[in-house]
Write a structure and sequence with these properties.
By secondary structure, this protein is mainly beta. It has one domain. The N and C termini lie far apart (82 Å).
Length: 118
């Protein structure tokens, strides 16, 4: 199924969904297949591969499979079983660098005692 509009599924569907908009799986929704979309909201059950910018698994929502997304939100009581990978890792902030040479300076300063007399 190829779509350029939002999709709401509250029943059973087997196959692949491609949507340039939002896909919402309702509480009674059961998807067996792959989903490629911009935003996915899961309140029902999905078995398969998911590729989306943002995936939200709501309370009582369940995903069994793999998720590739830039943002993954799992609410309390939401269930995810499978593998997750982050899209666009290069856009994430870099880890701060650690200069171990400055560590010895800190220890030297701690061992010195200074007394000021006024």
């Amino acid at each position: 199924m190829n779509l350029t509009c939002n999709l709401y599924v509250d029943g059973e569907f087997e196959g692949t969904i491609h949507s340039s908009k939002e896909v919402n799986i309702g509480k009674n929704g059961h998807i067996k297949g792959d989903i490629f979309t911009t935003r996915l909201v899961v309140q029902g059950y999905i078995e398969g591969k998911i590729n989306a910018q943002k995936v939200e698994i709501k309370a009582m929502g369940r995903v069994n499979g793999s998720i590739e997304s830039a943002e993954l939100v799992i609410e309390a009581k939401g269930i995810f079983e499978g593998k997750s990978s982050v899209k666009n890792v290069s856009e994430l902030p870099k880890k701060p660098s650690f200069d171990s040479s400055k560590l010895s300076e800190v220890f030297e300063d701690e061992n010195r005692e200074e007394v000021k007399v006024s």
